[in-house]
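Weekly structure sync, notes
Attendees: PL, DS, HV (note-taker this week)

Item 1: Urea ABC transporter permease subunit UrtB
DS walked through the input record. Source organism listed as Ancylobacter mangrovi. Sequence as pasted into the shared doc:
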Amino acid sequence: MTSPARCRSLSCALLFAALALATLLCAGRASAQDISGALDQFTQGNYGATEAALGELAVSGSPAAAGIVQALADGKLVFSNALPRKVFIETDKGLLDPLTMQPVPDPGPVKPVRVNNRIRRAIEAASGTLSLTSPDAATRLSAAGAVLRTRDEAALPALEKALAKETDRHVKSAMTLARSAIVIGMDGVPPEERIKAIEVVGAEGNQDALAVLRGLPDNALPEVKEAAAKEIAGIQHSLAMWDVVQNVWYGLSLGSVLLLAAIGLAITFGVMGVINMAHGEMVMLGAYTTFVVQQAIRTYDPGLFDASLIIAIPLAFLFTGLIGVIIERTVIRFLYGRPLETLLATWGISLILQQAIRTIFGPTNREVGAPSWMSGSFDIGQLSITYGRLWIIIFAMLVFAALLAVLRLTRIGLEMRAVTQNRRMAASMGIRTNWVDAMTFGLGSGIAGMAGVALSQIDNVSPNLGQGYIIDSFLVVVFGGVGNLWGTLVGAMSLGVANKLLEPYAGAVLGKIALLVIIILFIQKRPRGLFALKGRSIEA
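Item 1 (cont.): predicted structure, written out as tokens:
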């Protein structure tokens, strides 16, 4: 038999459970009622009501709000023509109730909720506000950035609430910046708070901060305007310095490309004295080798795509090196000591190679994809560094170091240097100069092929790819010193940086002309370049 005390305990437990269930149901109804007014505004068919509805959804706290805003962004939010008008989310499976996401009976004809640029900005602001409480730090960081761009005052309460709970240092900094940007543009803010917000934004020191400070209301107090003007001047000075650093980085990137294109020409021109106008086509053949390798990988083993460039590098070296040896053995060796005929012959070879590529692959550009490890970028202050350019610079330095090691530490390198300094004496010492010439031409062509692998990531792969680099390559070789690898390195980096520093002031074309004039004047003073080779036969 059950005691009266036990019965009372069971009754209390049941009562508490009923109260809790009722509370949850009421909360659910309250949540639905909280955004029902916003949903009704979507049915009015005017932009003002839609913008107001988005503002209400952003601060409603309803779990359905994010889905409704996303549906509007995707053009999937519709409302019925029949009265009473209701809002639905359109999917492939039919119409869904926006609160329950359950299918609904066919309401008849429906119309999409219209959007324009003003509504798109409101959608971005609402999405940012709703994402501020996401469990993912990256999502919260993106949301803070969206609030910063829109500077929507309606997002301030949600932003301050999220800021009070935020623990991630980077996200908290972004939220503080977004809050300060909103405070700067609000009316009725005390001057002290607005000046503090100006200092927070000014410390960011980027273009976004500059745009925020320039949006200061016209009715701001003089001391507030003075603080903003001071921060604007500081940001402009900082950005000007970062622009110089960015241009230097672009110059080093261009210099690494010139180094890759010219380093093979440096040893060919230095050892053999041959003006090889087909050198650019060796670069082009290396790029097309990369294209063929990637097509084969896509066809037979797509999982190897990230390794496609690593596979293409030795293949491009071997293929273009073999082509170089064939050209030297069949054409160049009969024209030594006849520079004009050599120039014309190699120019003719370049045209033949271009037409052969057009016949095989067509005249249009070919797509060469970037592996995942070369995609994306990262920032250092206001300096943006892409992984693709960074890897090309590293690759250029590795090729330079490897070639330097070959010339210094191997027998063929020793023989190449001997032939460069005094061909007749090297021949009298038993060095097979004809064989050295063939190997040198093959080595230079192979390095040009590897340069083509790198250039395929930053330039159009077409039959004309090499033509854009042949003249610059000769400039690098002559400026740095014929046959001197260190001179080629310094010449390539110097010309690359100088070119990019001149472009903002003179433009790309006038900057190039100014650089050519400077090089001509320099060669008048030092005909052998920066690092001239030494030796009695050279001095003679």
